Structure formats: C-alpha cells, structure tokens
Amino acid sequence: MRLLVAPDAFKGTFRAPEVAAAIGRGIEAAGLEPPDLCPIADGGEGTMEALVLALGGETAGATVRDPLGREIRAGFALLEDGATAVVEVAEASGLGLVAEHERDAEAATTHGTGDLIAAAVDAGAGVVLVAVGGSATTDGGAGAIEALREAGGLRNARLVVLSDVRTPFERAAAVFAPQKGADAAAVRRLERRLDRFAAELPRDPRGVPMSGAAGGLSGGLWAAFGAQLEPGAPFVLDAVGYDERARAAFAVVLGEGRLDATTLHGKAVFEAATRARQMGVPAHAIVGQDRLDAFGKRMLDLQHVLEASDARDLEAAGSDLAARLLSETRPG
Does the predicted model carry a pTM greater than 0.85? Predict the structure, then answer.
C-alpha cells in the first residue's frame, strides 16, 4: 500500500516539502512503505521550490528592490538545462518583505520583480515562469514594466504567468489591496490609478481573467509583453507528474494550512482532489485548520480530513491516517 503525499505549503508555517516529509515519516512509522512525496503549489509561494524538486535545476540570485524600494537579495531558479526560469513575485515584491506597520498599497512597487525577471533573462532563460502569489503591490505591474524596459526588455524571452486567482485587472484593488494596507479611500484611489494605467498600456487588461493577480501585475505583463496567463495549480500538477503518480498510488494525501471555502476556487488542493476523483483514486487531507463544511468536502470527495498544527502533529496525523487505511482494508 503506497500513498502519494501531495501537500501545498501551510502558509506562514511550513513549506510544502516540510509538510510532505513530516506526513511521510508518520506513514512509515505506522508500518506502510515509504510514500511518494510530491509537494505541490498553485502559482503562489512555494511554486519555485515544487518545480525545482520535481524537475531538477539550480537556484541563482540577484540584487533587486523590495516593495518599498530597498535593495535586497532575491532568488530565482533555472530548471533543467537553464532554458526555463522560475521567478516568484513573493521573493522581490512580497507582502512578507514588508513589516505590518510599513504596509502601503499605494507606494508598494513591483520594480523588484522586473529586476528579477531581467536577471533570469540575463542568465539565458528563454521562458520565464512568473508565480504571482503573495505580493504586497497594487501597481498594475508598472514597476516591473519599467524595470524590464530599463534592462532592455525580454530579448526574445517569453513570459508565462502562473496565477492562483482568476480576478480581472479592474478588481485587483477592491479584492486584494485591503490586506496590503489600503483603507477604503486608498482602494478607490488605487482603482482610479489602475484604470488610468490600463488605458495607457498597449493592450487593455481589464476584463481578462487572471489579469488582477499580484495587484494587476499579471495584467500589466500580459498587456506590455504578451505574457501568457495560466492557472497555477494545473500547470504545477502537470509539471510534477501528479496524474501518473496518483494513478500508481493506493490513495493520495493532500494538505494545506487552512481548508475552507476559498479552497474550492482553484487552489492546489482543489485541483489535486478533483483529478483524484476523476481517476478513481481515494483522496484524504491533513490540514492546519479544517473550516470546510460537509458540502465542500463532498465536492472534493475527501474521505478523511485530519488537523495538524505542528511538525509532531503532522507526523501523528500521518500515522493515524495510515492506521485507518490499514484497518479499513483488512478483511472482516
């Protein structure tokens, strides 16, 4: 009985590989064979690590500007032969780089993300995957566009934006700016600023699904550089070979920090559970908090959902789940 352990990160607590490893230790302790560990992501934080672990590659770094213009070192990845790079917006323009008392949705810039994309192009990447979750910004990508133009543009490289939301450009301020420090008046100002900026771009990103991700960064890159916008979860699951690995498993064990109604809107766990159901592979979940109602669990067809708040709990939950599966498969 071999399980596939495919968790997303527990945001702000554990990286996806840490979650997978802890659950895996618990499963082995219960007497099952070592599971297949497959950390996943949805285009947010952790996407770069999930892709490097699955596909191989190396990390590199560059000096960039953080959301408030301060110089920092940020990382990006070069996959396999170096022809494809992965840039996470959170590395250069992330909310985690700004202390809570410093958050300023109107001042925050994506310039550093543009610096990081330019560094990936300088390193020889012909395709740059941009994972856009976790940003501190609502500038419509203005800073990133400026930085890329200062660096000489994309030089025949191609951008693919991996989005964890479907929000269009014109909704970016209303939906995301409040968590980035904007009050109601600031949201209105940001909406007006984004509208003006959209009208100045070579193409109008308003109304385009996923163009509002990272405060409109995805729409700005789409409009200025022809970036391809892709839902992050399906892209990552395809890249890590999830379907083939799930078919080879007795069951899949998913995970995320909080299982709730937002899980049903394109998150990695939703995509992974949906695929498992379509393949006829039982799915279970170990989560930090379970706030999804019974109807939502039926939609995902999750058979067991266990909670775990720390590394010890994750191991224990892995053991508990393994013991339940062993008990359920014993004759009689």
Answer: yes
